Every structure is written in structure tokens, then in C-alpha cells.
């Protein structure tokens, strides 16, 4: 084997790591995030349609319930180093599935005749897990450490307790669907900056 062929050796200079594999992983994950951003928007619209008044009325501003274990992307998120942004994205995507499951259970009671909404919520939980795992794979490929998942059951139980009553349950669902859209969109943007030829 020539010295040039030996450059793929793991012991070789890290600057000649298998970039095509990394680029392909980033592109694939970015494409998934872009697709899920569209689905998240559809989920939010469909959720609002099934909640009745005052949801969906012009000017309606629901109370911003805090969601245990999850908040919106911080104002300074875009200024963080790429690995840190992706770690935050992955942590949020890991926290979302149990919260989406809580919302789906509430909606199964409140809107049992809305099978498409219930299916979208179930799909969203599965898709958030898949995107979170893909982002963690990108982090691993970049050589960055990933953090352990948060305490999902505790966050979900807290959210369920916060949503005692019909209106709070509907508001919680709106908030969780909104956070899902925000974090998937934020993940798409963060990955887009890593895609070769993407925005700097």
C-alpha cells in the first residue's frame, strides 16, 4: 500500500479524515430536518384547527405555559459554536417525544374523532427521536461529545400535571407543538450552516 493510500488510516492526520462520509451524513440529516420543518408546520396548523375558539381566532394570545425540561431556542443560540448549537438541538429533540406523547393522550380524550391529528402527533414523536439520533451521529462524526438524555419521564409527568383541566391541556399542546416547530426549524438552520456550499 502506498503512503498516499495509507492516509485513510485512523492514525493519520485528522485533517484528512473521511470527509465525504461526514458531508453525506450532514446533508442527509439536513434534508430530514427540512422535511420535518414542513411537517411540524402542518402539525401546528392542524392542532389549532381542532381546539375550537378562542384558538385560531385573530389576536388570540394564549398564556405561555412553561414546559418542564424544554424552552425555546435562546436569543444567543445562533452565536454559539456549531457543536454547542447541535448539542442543544439534540437535547431538545430528545426532550420532545415524551411531551408530544402527553399531548397526544390529551387529544385522544378531547378529540377522539381527529385520527389524523393523533397520527401526526404520534409521527412527530417518532420523527423527533429519529432527528435527534441523526444529530447526535453528526456530532459523533465531528468528534464532539454528546450529552446524556434528560429525565424524560419526569418532564412529561410535570407537563401532564401542569395541564390539569381542558383549557390548560389545550394550551400545553399548542406550546409543545410550537416548540417542536421551533427546534426542528432551528436544527435545520444549524445543519444548513455545515452543509458544504450552505450559508456561512
TrEMBL record:
- What name is this protein filed under? Cardiotrophin-1
Q: What is its main location?
A: secreted
> Gene Ontology cellular component?
extracellular space
Region (Disordered) spans which residues? 1-20
Residue intervals passing through the bilayer: none
Role according to the record: Induces cardiac myocyte hypertrophy in vitro. Binds to and activates the ILST/gp130 receptor.
Q: Where in the cell is it found?
A: Secreted
Q: Name one GO molecular function term.
A: cytokine activity
Keyword check for Phosphoprotein: no
Q: Name one GO biological process term.
A: cell surface receptor signaling pathway
Identify the PANTHER family for this entry: CARDIOTROPHIN-1 (PTHR21353:SF2), PTHR21353
Cite the SUPFAM superfamilies for this sequence: 4-helical cytokines
Amino acid at each position: 500500500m502506498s503512503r498516499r493510500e495509507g492516509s485513510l488510516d485512523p492514525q493519520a492526520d485528522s485533517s484528512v479524515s473521511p470527509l465525504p462520509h461526514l458531508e453525506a451524513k450532514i446533508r442527509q440529516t439536513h434534508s430530514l430536518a427540512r422535511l420535518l420543518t414542513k411537517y411540524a408546520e402542518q402539525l401546528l396548523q392542524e392542532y389549532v384547527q381542532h381546539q375550537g375558539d378562542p384558538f385560531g381566532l385573530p389576536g388570540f394570545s394564549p398564556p405561555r405555559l412553561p414546559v418542564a425540561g424544554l424552552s425555546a431556542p435562546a436569543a444567543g443560540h445562533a452565536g454559539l459554536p456549531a457543536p454547542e448549537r447541535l448539542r442543544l438541538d439534540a437535547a431538545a429533540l430528545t426532550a420532545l417525544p415524551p411531551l408530544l406523547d402527553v399531548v397526544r393522550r390529551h387529544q385522544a380524550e378531547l378529540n377522539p374523532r381527529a385520527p389524523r391529528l393523533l397520527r401526526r402527533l404520534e409521527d412527530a414523536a417518532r420523527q423527533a427521536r429519529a432527528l435527534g439520533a441523526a444529530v447526535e451521529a453528526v456530532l459523533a462524526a465531528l468528534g464532539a461529545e454528546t450529552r446524556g438524555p434528560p429525565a424524560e419521564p419526569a418532564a412529561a409527568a410535570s407537563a401532564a400535571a401542569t395541564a390539569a383541566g381542558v383549557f390548560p391541556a389545550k394550551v400545553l399542546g399548542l406550546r409543545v407543538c410550537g416548540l417542536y416547530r421551533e427546534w426542528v426549524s432551528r436544527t435545520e438552520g444549524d445543519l444548513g450552516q455545515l452543509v458544504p456550499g450552505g450559508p456561512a
